[in-house]
């Protein structure tokens, strides 16, 4: 059974994530006491339940129960029982705004302000975040974007056992991607937007991609960046990183960055690497 433990900061979107996980076929339990996870997994090992995927939200709402979190995960690891941890977070400002908008009370806000409670919770969860398999910052994510990220991260049951590369395109005018590990600025390439025949197309169109790739500076860039990434990726793997997000940015996120992301997607595919692609701003204008 594939086990996913969802945790993170209050107000960071764990409930929304659980809804999307249910749509993806996960059996979901909210506010699960960590100590009960072992009992649940025992039922599976005794063939009393037959589930392919299960997800459990565990967070500070559990109060005293949540203190068992790290101990239980350590025991599961020692017993070689597989699981993954998904950690959701957001900036202090975003979380304060969400609590005000929803008129919800932070679980730790007794005797202090929301911002103090958020900072206290962030400190309490520091070790858990550092050891999480997946971390998603939801500060600027719309619900559909969170869903896309979950699908991208968890689309393959082997994702936890293989090094995964995600190539992303984005537009600088829509903001930097906060989850990118490596960012390349491709605004030095001549812009197809200024050609009337290509303005309303995207880098998914062969004519646009051919235009972007025909320049000597583009070819040199692809050659040198390919060599750089080929050198760096083994070191990321050595450090235990499972997912490397490589982002290419242009002005609007429709032409040059999309073409480049598609180019590197094909390069990694040819090398038989596990790769996804995500065009963040392709539909924005």
Describe this structure in words.
The chain is α/β, with parallel strands linked by helices. The chain has 10 helices and 9 strands. It has a 5-stranded parallel beta sheet, with helices on one face. About 2% of the residues have low confidence. The chain has 2 domains: 160 residues, P-loop containing nucleotide triphosphate hydrolases (Rossmann fold); 116 residues, no CATH class.
Adjacency order of strands in the biggest sheet: 2-3-1-4-5
- The averaged pLDDT comes out at 89
Taking pLDDT < 50 over at least 5 consecutive residues as the criterion, the unreliable ranges are: 157-161
Fraction of residues in β-strands: 15-25%
Order of helices and strands: EHEHEHEHHHEHEEHHEHE
Q: Quick one: CATH superfamily of the largest domain? A: P-loop containing nucleotide triphosphate hydrolases
Give the CATH architecture of the largest domain.
3-Layer(aba) Sandwich
Oligomer: single chain
SS field, number of helical segments: 10
Q: What does the largest sheet look like?
A: 5 strands, parallel
Shape: globular
Structural class: alpha/beta
Number of strands: 9
| CATH topology call of the largest domain | Rossmann fold
Rg value:
21 Å
Supply the number of structural domains. 2
Task: Give the topology, please.
Blueprint: E1 2-8, H1 14-23, E2 27-29, H2 34-45, E3 53-57, H3 69-78, E4 84-89, H4 92-102, H5 114-124, H6 126-130, E5 134-137, H7 143-154, E6 164-171, E7 182-185, H8 206-213, H9 216-238, E8 243-250, H10 256-270, E9 274-279
Parallel strand pairs: 1-3, 1-4, 2-3, 4-5, 6-8, 6-9, 7-8
Helix pairs in contact: 1-7, 2-3, 4-5, 8-10
